[in-house]
Amino acid sequence: MNKAPILAALPVLALLAACNMGGADNASSPQGELVGARIGGPFTLTDQDGKKVRWDDFKGRYRLVYFGYTYCPDVCPVDLQRIMQAFARFEKEKPALAAKVQPIFISVDPERDTPATIKTYVNAFHPRLIGLTGTPDEIAKVAKDFAVIYHREESQGASDYLVGHSRTPYLFGPDGAPIALVPVDDPATPDVDEGAPDHVLASLEKWVK
Prior knowledge:
30% of the residues lie in helices and 20% in strands. With 209 residues, the protein is an alpha+beta fold. A 7-stranded mixed sheet has the order 2-1-5-4-3-8-9, with helices on both faces. Strand 6 and strand 7 form a beta hairpin. Helix 2 crosses helix 6. Mean pLDDT is 87; it is low at 1-28.
């Protein structure tokens, strides 16, 4: 299967905090839509406890990765809540399989997202959710390697700012290779709830072996 069209389309489909980067129709595919895609790569970042963490530290585990930031007013907390609700159900129904999965939150706002800030944030969603941050250069490289786009949005006269970013919940395999996009809701289809926990759970049940 040729993955070039997927790679070429990712920056467009991922446009800034609004697009559906996964869907319930993933379950109908015999192979994850990201298999063979060049997404991901080695990194060293800082976790919520201030410890250095490498991508290879998760070798042998599936990795459920979401990019966002703690000051996000709406999209990030809703997405994370639904993803982690599904993961909690997965833990309850299939604990042995859930133990093979590491949920990871990576900040795209390193200037404000200190380890202490991220620790409070990830603890609100699930005790196994790891939060990662780094220097602006480290985050920029990781975002590029993981096909994530983001930019700082400032209003004239305002002291605060928002960060526009793509919604890209990825599922990676134990070897670190990408498998599939995890469902999130598409605001363009208000009558369809693509990101419901049931759909996220179905995605985990399909791909985690």
